[in-house]
Amino acid sequence: MTGTTRDMADSVVEGLLESCVAVEVKEAIDTSASDLDVYDNFVFGLYTWGDGDLPDEFLDLYDEMRDMDLSGKRAAVFGCGDSSYRYFAVAGDMLSKRLENRGAAVMQRTVKADRCPGIEDFDACRKLGIEFADFIKRQLN
Question: Model confidence at 25, in pLDDT bands (50, 70, 90)?
Fold first, then answer.
């Protein structure tokens, strides 16, 4: 809606590229569960809407994941929220749990930005990309 998650994603991509990981960026609204079959590694970025809800743009993909086998896939999640709400940035937690329940290896480190991310948040996202590249390599060995 505001471009915040997209800006955070750009920083994650920067970290992945620094680690020589090829990247393809897709919008959740334009992605279906069948698209996930093509990839072994995913980094999902999403914001938390209101008091702990997934964004509308992510609902279809999230629902389609319910019956998927994601064994052998690796994932990381980041996002943003508003700490003035009762549940801060929990959409990413919900997605991480769904991915784990479907068999994916999910990197436990994440980045949660409060409202508009600052320089520290963007740096943390870049580092998340670097750490996810390492996570992929460790999982392959």
Answer: very high
CA-CA distance, 73 to 70, in Å (whole number)?
A: 5
Tokens of 129: 């990309």
Strand partners of residue 77: 44
> How would CATH label the architecture of 4-140?
3-Layer(aba) Sandwich (3.40)
Task: Give first-to-last CA distance, the chain, whole Å.
Answer: 39
* Token reading at 67: 């019956």
Contact 55, 49 (CB under 8 A): yes
- Scan for tokens 């996810």, then name that residue: 132
pTM above 0.90, yes or no: yes
Residues 34, 129: Cα–Cα separation, whole Å: 24
- Arithmetic mean of pLDDT, 71-88: 95
